[in-house]
């Protein structure tokens, strides 16, 4: 049986050597990678956190609102005859712009005894109610969410009926202008007495005589 080999009898084994910078270099590279990973993790945490609006340049212009972020919900539209005071006046101004800039130039038929009109229509409270309802329906049915048939529905269900009602020979404007050459304005009395004009109720509530 051959004698066992004694490691001491052989030449001393050379230590393992890593190419390049050796163990110290590898440890430094690992430490650098760990540091970079921690830095990236902190960056991701900061990006996922909610932004601080107070630090943004537009915060002083519109608090709580930022470009690209949804702002506060718009108030629900209200029928004009349920408003009063400055809210009524502001809504009437907006309605007048729509009537004079869009409705009359587009759908204002010729003034005649069959289709009377009044240049002071805003003083006829009934007409204000009709036209405001028509305007609200117009905004709803011309919205993209109403679909391609929305405007056709507005014409069929709202425009034709409204204009026929307020411009009928016996309608609320029948005592007003029947010819452009003869402007006229008169509010017909109701069964309860003279019809109120916009602002009368506010004056009555404040105790000021009209």
Based on the model shown, name its key terms.
210 residues, mainly alpha, 5 helices, 43% helix, rod-shaped, disordered C terminus, DUF4913, DUF4913 domain-containing protein
H/E order of the elements?
HHHHH
The helix tally amounts to: 5
Let me know the average pLDDT. 78
Tell me, what's the shape?
Answer: rod-shaped
Low-confidence parts, pLDDT < 50 over ≥5 residues?
58-66, 202-210
First-last Cα distance: 135 Å
DSSP strand count: 0
Strand content: under 5%
Radius of gyration: 40 Å
* Biggest sheet statistics: none
| Helix/strand structural class | mainly alpha
> How much helix, percentage-wise, in residues?
40-55%
Please explain how this structure is put together.
With 210 residues, the protein is an all-alpha fold. It has a domain at 84-206. It is built from five helices and no strands. Residues 58-66 and 202-210 have low confidence and may be disordered.
């Amino acid at each position: 049986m051959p004698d066992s080999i004694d490691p001491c009898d052989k030449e001393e084994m050379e230590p393992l050597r890593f190419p390049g910078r050796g163990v110290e270099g590898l440890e430094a590279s690992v430490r650098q990678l760990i540091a970079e990973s921690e830095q990236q993790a902190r960056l991701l945490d900061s990006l996922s956190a909610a932004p601080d609006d107070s630090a943004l340049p537009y915060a002083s212009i519109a608090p709580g609102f930022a470009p690209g972020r949804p702002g506060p919900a718009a108030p629900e539209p209200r029928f004009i005859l349920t408003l009063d005071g400055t809210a009524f006046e502001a809504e009437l101004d907006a309605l007048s712009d729509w009537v004079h800039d869009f409705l009359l130039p587009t759908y204002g038929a010729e003034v005649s005894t069959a289709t009377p009109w009044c240049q002071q229509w805003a003083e006829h409270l009934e007409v204000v109610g009709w036209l405001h309802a028509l305007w609200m329906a117009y905004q709803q049915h011309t919205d993209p969410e109403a679909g391609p048939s929305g405007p056709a529905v507005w014409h069929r269900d709202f425009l034709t009926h409204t204009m026929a009602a307020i411009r009928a020979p016996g309608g609320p404007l029948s005592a007003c202008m029947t010819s452009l050459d003869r402007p006229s304005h008169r509010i017909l009395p109701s069964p309860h007495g003279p019809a109120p004009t916009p602002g009368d109720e506010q004056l009555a509530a404040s105790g000021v005589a009209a």
